[in-house]
Write a structure and sequence with these properties.
The structure holds three protein chains of three kinds.
Chain A: H1 3-24, H2 28-53, H3 61-79, H4 83-106, H5 110-130, H6 132-135, E1 148-150, E2 156-158, H7 162-184, H8 187-197, H9 199-204, H10 209-235, H11 245-258, H12 263-280, H13 284-301, H14 305-320
Antiparallel strand pairs in A: 1-2
Helix pairs in contact in A: 1-7, 2-7, 2-10, 2-11, 2-12, 3-4, 3-5, 3-10, 4-5, 4-10, 7-10, 8-10, 11-12, 11-13, 11-14
Chain B: E1 5-14, E2 17-27, E3 32-36, H1 43-50, E4 58-63, E5 66-67, H2 73-79, E6 81-83, H3 96-104, H4 112-117, H5 120-140, H6 155-167, E7 173-177, H7 185-200, E8 204-208, H8 212-218, E9 221-226, E10 229-234, H9 236-241, H10 243-258
Parallel strand pairs in B: 3-8, 3-9, 6-7, 7-8
Antiparallel strand pairs in B: 1-2, 1-4, 4-5, 9-10
Helix pairs in contact in B: 3-5, 3-6, 5-6, 6-7
Chain C: H1 3-34, H2 41-57, H3 63-86, H4 94-116, E1 131-134, E2 137-140, H5 141-163, H6 165-175, H7 177-183, H8 187-209, H9 219-234, H10 239-259, H11 267-279
Antiparallel strand pairs in C: 1-2
Helix pairs in contact in C: 1-5, 1-6, 1-8, 1-9, 1-10, 2-3, 2-8, 2-9, 3-8, 5-6, 5-8, 6-7, 6-8, 9-10, 9-11
Classes of the chains: A mainly alpha, B alpha/beta, C mainly alpha.
């Protein structure tokens, strides 16, 4: 069995195990951790796509997340849409907004894009808080109803239990990770990395940086928007706190520790960092202080994260295998 | 015979300094043209402009009659004009073969959806690129490192890799920006051989260099620049004895010998 | 259209605009010289305000000594920031610097929340309840002092940048780093000074504004994003442009807030920034002389 087959089997087993958890334990705390992991897996996966693979530092993910949440909530409560349609619409809207934000600022520079993505996230927060007629203001839309989804085969799934949301979010997380993996393991992902490593070289080889950057942004926004639409129904409320900087900081830490551009390490980091803080019973403030310290240390000493460390080890083994060029 | 590359009236100014001053030139298909000149004569600026990396203030350039003026670098590359960089560029984390496959991927007609679908079209294209990559690696003498990460190459070997990469997409014309700068003499010979071999396979080349001997032995026609202007053009033997060229290269020494006031 | 009301709005706008300018100019200077976007810039503003609060309320220091001490401490902090963190990062890619300063901001901000809680504190000085009458206007003295301090800082910054050798060196590095290196300017010394001045301005702004509005650990957070928007509007790296854009924004916010109380005043900075990016991406004043 080659390494590739081994890995595929491990993935299948892992996914099966994740889906088996609600059968094994009805413990709501465990299910809540699972939902948190699934949500952050999608968010950090998208951020990894934009920052880790394409090299674009972006703070806009949380904006897409919240746009998806509000859109789904409004469409379901005011227009009677089903949950999946509402979430899908949220994702599409988020992707369109992402394209606009990306296109307008990438023309200028990556510095500008980073700053604009940050301001965009903040603007979302301000709009959610102050544009009361649209978003109901600071109180948000509480008491979201139990959503339903029409499944193929005519079944109607009422998501009344925490386990239902667990299955929904975990299922979507698997789909999202598969989509991201499909892109990054293809020549599209190769082009994105070329742009990140050496943009002028990529340009001189016919690669159009703007289209790949926009692709990464649009895909990450689509996924974040959809998961946002699901997440707010799990919370049964959508309010401006969906745009909290806390989400940005957490997903950044997951990508940095996992290693920008490393698919599996970032996924693993998402799992560990979703479970860890609650298990360690930190207050939010201290947790953020710790994250900040980790971020500083990572930037100074190991910017590649775990994934980067693994890559360097592989490179060193290559050199030692005797094919050095001198 | 109409030229493959036509540059007309190219001008580039930086903050009041005119780096390239109304330069026109033509390159015939199949030629190896040398572009030489002292430091600051505008050689690299010309390369940056015609490959789309710097906007020009004035002028036009066309490849086989197609207008390239004002196009972004990736469009110019796809139109058939590729280049290498003075500070040699490569994807260190990829193997040599992967480096070359990246260079071919935008020109094999495989769209995004086909790339994601992993169908037979993609596989054929990738197989073709790999075969061509191995061919080019053999031409430049790097076959043994095909599966090695580019990071392990020496400086001169990286230059060879860059030259190979510039050929992957079957360009009409390749501009090599200082292909032997900072390279040891043995490697210079290898690069010269590689360039010669590639030219015999039908690629037109423009070589920008400081190393005058290298240019003289490789190129059938040479253009000399000084202070942004073309000051001489012709076969190497003629250029070698051109007084203007000598003045451009040795002018400073002369002025130093004869004292101030002569300029 | 009550004239005195408009003048009041104008004055308030100029005061807040000048303070915005202090923070934005510092941010712009650091970006221009080091190509680093200092995410933690707002936390130094907050720390300046916090320190001013404690010096005034607990140590019973007078207003002017407080201002001096806070500014000196901020300048010192800037030097430490450069030596400990930013200096090793130069030229290493600007994403790393953003994330590093973001990490620093997380530490400082959440640390402050943990230590001081989020309850806002009001700072009282001996001028706190005095007003000055200018014609029909009654202007709180604290605001005038804040304005005065800001203008003093402008003047000092101008003198440093345009009349001293090291200031010229700073401008040189901001315009063209490679050329500056060739001429023999020591980039480390210049960078350290730029960070020291930038952080110093931020701390001073915090101390100047502390008596006017409430002091709390999250005040830097909202402030710094506006500063980002301001430097984009003025032109990335253009210090004078940042100052002008800042005062303009302050006045605009004041008037919009005065006449349209239900409109999102906070969003003005960001919508202006987006408009500028779509219409004139290099900012109102461009990057100065830099190509």
């Amino acid at each position: 069995m080659t390494a590739g087959w081994l890995r595929a089997v491990a993935v299948v087993l892992g996914v099966a195990a994740l889906f088996a958890i609600p059968r094994v334990t009805g413990n709501e705390y465990v299910l809540a951790l699972g939902v948190s992991f699934a949500t952050f897996a999608v968010l950090s996966g998208g951020l990894n796509l934009v920052y880790g693979y394409t090299g674009l530092l972006s703070f806009a993910q949380v904006g897409f997340f919240g746009i998806g949440g509000y859109t789904a909530a409004l469409l379901v409560t005011e227009r009677g849409w089903s949950l999946w349609a509402g979430a899908a619409a949220g994702g599409v809207l988020a992707a369109l907004v992402g394209l606009v934000v990306g296109y307008s600022s990438l023309r200028l520079s990556r510095h500008a894009f980073a700053i604009v993505s940050l301001s965009f996230a903040l603007l979302c927060l301000i709009v959610a808080r102050d544009w009361v007629s649209l978003t109901r203001g600071a109180m948000g839309i509480p008491g979201l109803p139990i959503p339903s989804m029409d499944l193929p085969g005519g079944l109607r799934w009422r998501l009344a239990q925490p386990a239902d949301f667990y299955y929904l979010l975990m299922g979507f997380a698997v789909v999202a990770q598969a989509a991201i993996y499909l892109v990054v393991s293809s020549r599209l992902g190769r082009a994105m990395r070329a742009i990140k490593w050496n943009e002028p070289l990529a340009q001189s080889q016919g690669i159009n940086p703007l289209s790949y950057k926009l692709l990464a942004i649009a895909l990450s926004a689509l996924l974040a928007g959809i998961v946002g639409g699901f997440f707010v129904f799990y919370l049964t409320i959508v309010d401006p706190s969906i745009f909290d900087f806390y989400y940005t900081e957490t997903m950044l830490i997951m990508v940095i520790i996992g290693g920008p551009g490393s698919f599996w390490s970032v996924l693993a980091a998402s799992a560990v960092l979703s479970a860890l803080p609650d298990l360690l019973r930190f207050t939010t403030d201290l947790r953020m202080v710790l994250y900040g310290a980790v971020l500083i240390a990572a930037m100074l000493f190991f910017p590649g994260g775990v994934g980067g460390w693994l890559r360097r080890r592989r490179m060193r083994r290559w050199r030692r295998s005797g094919l050095a060029a001198r | 015979m109409t030229a493959l590359l036509e540059v007309r009236g190219l001008t580039k100014r930086y903050l009041g300094l005119t780096a390239v001053d109304d330069v026109s030139l033509e390159v015939e298909a199949g030629a190896v043209l040398g572009l030489i000149g002292p430091n600051g004569s505008g050689k690299s600026t010309i390369v940056d402009c015609i490959s789309g990396f710097q906007p020009a203030n004035a002028g036009r350039w066309l490849l086989d009659g197609h207008e390239l003026t004002g196009l972004p670098p990736h469009r110019i590359a796809r139109a058939g004009l590729t280049r290498t960089f003075q500070a040699v560029r490569a994807y260190d984390e990829l193997t040599l073969l992967q480096n070359l496959c990246v260079a071919a991927q935008e020109s094999d007609g495989v769209g995004w959806l086909q790339a994601l679908g992993r169908g037979s079209r993609l596989r054929r294209a990738e197989a073709g690129a790999e075969a061509r990559g191995r061919d080019l690696l053999a031409t430049v003498g790097l076959s043994e490192y095909a599966e090695a990460p580019a990071a392990i190459l020496s400086y001169g070997q990286r230059k060879l890799l860059a030259i190979a990469a510039s050929m992957m997409a079957r360009p009409r014309l390749v501009v090599l920006d200082e292909p032997v700068a900072g390279v040891n003499p043995t490697m210079i010979r290898r690069i010269e051989q590689a360039i010669h071999k590639l030219n015999t396979e039908g690629v037109t080349l423009v070589i920008v260099e400081h190393n005058v001997d290298f240019i003289m032995s490789l190129c059938r026609r040479v253009i000399v620049l000084d202070a942004g202007r073309k000051i001489a053009e012709g076969p190497p033997a003629l250029i070698r004895s051109d007084p203007g060229v000598l003045a451009a290269y040795l002018g400073q020494t002369r002025a130093a010998q004869l004292g101030p006031g002569l300029r | 259209m009550d004239l005195s009301f408009c003048l009041q709005l104008l004055l308030n706008g100029i005061v807040i605009g000048v303070i915005y300018a202090l923070v934005a100019m510092g941010l712009s200077l650091i970006f221009g010289v080091l190509e680093i976007v200092n995410f933690a810039h707002g936390e130094f503003y907050m720390l300046g305000a916090m320190l001013a609060y404690f010096l005034t309320m607990n140590a019973r220091l007078g207003y002017w000594p407080t201002i001096l001490v806070v500014t000196a401490v901020a300048v010192g902090l800037g030097c430490v920031l450069y030596e400990a963190l930013l200096g090793s990062l130069q030229g290493e890619g600007f994403e790393r610097s953003i994330l590093l300063t973001l990490g620093l901001s997380m530490v400082l901000q959440n640390g402050a929340v943990f230590v001081f809680t989020t309850t806002p504190k009001m700072m009282q000085t001996r001028y706190s309840y005095s007003n000055v009458s200018l014609g029909d206007l009654r202007v709180p003295v604290m605001r005038l002092l804040a304005l005065g301090l800001g203008l003093l800082a402008f003047g000092a910054l101008y003198l440093i940048l345009y009349r001293t050798r090291v200031g010229k060196a700073m401008r040189g590095v901001a315009q063209n780093r490679d050329a500056a290196l060739m001429v023999g300017i020591d980039p480390r010394a210049v960078s350290r000074l730029a960070v020291a001045i930038g952080v110093g301005l931020s701390g001073l702004a915090g101390a100047a504004l502390a008596p006017v509005y409430a002091v709390h650990p999250l005040m830097g957070f909202s402030f710094v994003f506006k500063a980002f928007a301001i430097i984009i509007i003025g032109g990335l790296g253009n210090v004078a442009g940042a100052a002008i854009a800042a005062v303009g924004l302050g006045v605009l916010e004041s008037f919009v807030g005065g006449f349209f109380p239900l409109v999102m005043v906070d969003a003005l900075a960001f919508t202006s920034m987006i408009a500028i990016l779509l219409l004139r991406p290099q900012g109102l004043f461009g990057r100065g002389v830099r190509v």
